Amino acid sequence: MDLRVKSILPKPPVKQESPSMQNKRRSDAGPPSGDYNKRQRSVPDSTRHFSVDSDGAHDSPEGSRPAATGHRPVTSCTFCRQHKIKCNASERFPGACSRCEKMNLKCEIDPQFRPKKGSQIQTLKSDVNDLKAKMEVLARNEKLLVEALSHSQLPGYQSQSQFLPASTDSPGLFPEINDINDSVPNTLLPISSASLEPQPGPTDTASYKEPEYPVLSEFRLGDVVLSAEKASALHGIFVERRLPYLPIMSTSSANTLYHQSQLLFWTVMLTAALSEPEPQMYMSLASLIKQLAIETCWIRTPRSTHVVQALLILSTWPLPNEKVLDDCSYRFIGLAKNLALQLGLHRGGKFIQEFSRTQVSLGPDADTWRTRSWLAIFFCEQFWSSVLGLPPSINTTDYLVEHARVDHTLPKHFRCLMSLSIFQCKLVNVMGISVTRPDGLMEPSNRAASLNILERELDRLRFKLEIDDGSPVEVYFLYVKLMICCFAFLPGTPIEDQVRYVSSAYLAATRIITITSQMLRNDTHLVELPIYIRQAITYSVFLLFKLHLSRYLMDRYADSARQSIVTVHRLLRNTLSSWKHLQNDISRTAKVLENLNIVLYTCPEVFLPDSIDTGGGIISRMRSHLTASLFYDLIWCVHEARRRTQEKSSSRPQKPAIDDSVFEQRNCRRPVPLPFYNQITKDDFKTITTTTPNGTTVTTLVPTDHAMNQARVNATDAKRPLEINGITLAMLEATGSTREPAANPDMGIDLGPEPGASGVSSAAPAASPGLGASGVSGVSAGPGASAVPSPFLPYNPTSEVADQMDNFFQQQSHGWLNDYRDDDFLGWIDENMVQE
To answer: What's the domain range around 764?
Structure first.
C-alpha cells in the first residue's frame, strides 16, 4: 500500500540548470555515473596536488602528477584561476608561470581550489581587521614594554634615539623624515613614545632623573656644522636673552635639547644667532629650518609639544622675509594651534591621555609647559591677527586662558601679557566683528561710547596688573592703547570723536619709542627684540607720521612727532654693515618710511584727505583691515604718489614745479620732508640718544673716526666736499647731526631748543627739510664747535646745502620714479590698488 501510494505521488520538480552550471558540476563531481559515496571516496585521490615556487622548485607527495579523477585536468595555477587570466604553468612546468615568476609568487596548481566571488575584497577586509587587532594589542602592551626597557637601562637602547651619524660621533647631514625625532616613531623610544608613563608631579620633581643621551661633538644640518662648544654658547644666549620674552620651555643643555627635538634645537640655534656679529650662520640656517619645519609638520602629524614650541619661537622671532605675504609667521601660528588642539594642549595636562598615547615626555613639569604653550598660542594669535588686520581665529577664551589672569605661578610679565591679550580679543570682538556692516566695524555713531568704556577698562587693568615702567609689558600695553585710538581714527567716525584720541595716541607712541630706545642702549640689537616689541615701534612711527600731517595734532607736539619719526628711522637703519642686507620687518618699515618721505617731497597732496568722502579723518581710505588699516592706508599713498608721478613725467618730461595752491585752499602748510638716511651703519656712525624732559627721544648721528678719515681721503682725491656714504657733512649738520671734536669727546651736546619752542617755518623751502626740533639752520654742536677745523664746516649752508638736499632726495626717489617696484611691500603691486 505504501509502495503503491508512493509511486502514485507526483515527483518533485527538478530545477533546470544552465549548461555552464552543468559543466561546472560535472567537472566538480567527476564521472556522471558515480553517486555521492563514490565521489566522497574519490576525494583523497584528488587531494594529491603539487606546487611550484617561482624559482622552479616543485614538490609532489605521490608523484609528479595527481591521480586521474576522470574530469578535465587543471592546467592553471591558483592565482591565475582566481583572477581569471591566462596561465602557462603547464607549459613551463616544473617552473613557475610567467605571472607568478614576475610577481615573485608561489605558483601552485591545486585541482581542489575553488575560486570564490568577491574573495579579493573579503581578503583585504580580513587583512585590515587583522592589522587593526595587532595594532591594538601593541598599543595595549606599549606601556609595559616602555617600563620594562626603561628599568633595564640597556646601553644599546639609549643609542637608538640618535640619528645615523655622518661621522663616528656627529649627527647626519639632513635627516630623513623617518629619522626626525619630532615625528611619529617606528620603534619604541624613551623620548618619542613614553607618554603613557605617569608624569612626575610637583612632589616628585626632585626624584626625576633626566635620561642620559650620547654626547655629540658636533651638530650638522645641511651644510651648517656647529661644534659642541658653539652650540652650548648659543644655547646659553637663548636661555638668557630670548627665553624671558617667551617662557614656554625649559632646557638644560644643547645636547639634551637636540635629542629631544631636532626642530626645536635648530630653532633655538637660529634665534640665538641673531646676536652674532656676522649673519652668515643665521641666513644659512633660516632656509634650512623652514624646510625642516615643513617636513616635520606637513608630511606627518608630530606628536610632540616641542614642535609647537618651535613654531611659537619662529613666530616670535620671524624668519627673514621681504614682503608681508612672504612672512610665514601667521601660518606657523595656525599650524601650531591645530597641532595643539590635536595634542590636547587646550585642556592642559589633566586630560592629556584622552588625546594621545604617544606624546613626547616634557620632564617633571610637563603640565606647566603644555599649558604655557597653549597660552602662548592664544597670545601670538591675537598679536599676529592685529598685525595683519584679520579677525582672530581664537576669538573666545577658555579655562586655561581665563585662569592665566590669576595664576601667580606664571612669570609676572607673561601673566600681564596674557591679560592684555584677553583684553585685545575683547576689543576686536566689540569693535571689529559686526554683522550689520560689510566692513565688519561698529556703527560710526556708536564707536565713541564703546571706546570710552574700553579705554577706562584698560586703564583699570594697568593699575591692577602693576605694570613696571620701561618694561616690555608697558610697551605692549601702549600698543593696545594705540589700537583703541586707531579704531577711533577709522573712516566714518565723527571728527569730534577722533580729535579726543589724537593727544592720547601721540603720548603713547612717543612713550613706546622712548622705552625701546632705552632697551637698545645695552649692546642689544633691534633684531634681537621679539616681534611684539618691534611691531609696537612700527605701529607707533606710522601713527606719528599720520598725526604730524594732520591738522588735529597740537602745534607743540608736531615738532616732537617729527623728531620721534627720525629717531625710529635711525634705529631701524643704524645697524651693523654686515646685517644691512637682511630683509625682515625692520628693513620693510624703514623702506616704507623712506618711500613716504619721498611722497612728501614729490607729491605731498596725496596725504590730503578728501573732505567730501571721508570727512577729513586721520585714516581716510582703508577700513576693512581693522587697526592695520593704518598701514594699508599709508601704502595706498605710496602707490598713488607713484602713479601720479609717472603721469606727470609722461606728460611733462621736465621737472614739475611745486604747486602749493592746493595747500592754500585747505588753509594748511605744505609738509616738509624728513632727514632720512638709508646709508648709515654702526661702522660709520655712532648714535647719541637723549630723552628730553617732555619725553621726546632724540637720536643724533656722530661720524666715527674711521669714517671721517676715509671721508677726508676721498674728498682730497676727488676734490669734493666731505661726505660719508654719499651724505655730505654739511647736510648731516643741517639736519640735526653733530660733529664730535677730537680734542674733547666728552663735551656736552646741545640738542637744540625744546620741542615746540621753535618749529619749522611754513615758508621753509621744500628742498630743505628740517629736523623737527630744530630748523634747517642747524643744531649747535656744543661749546667746542668753534674749535672744529675748517674742513668740517659746510661750504655754504644757505645755498649749496639746499642743492645737496635736493639732489639727495632726487637720488633716493630714483628707484620708484623709474618704474622699479621697490614699493611693493605687500607682495602685490598697484594693479590691485585702484583709485577710489
So the answer is: 507-817
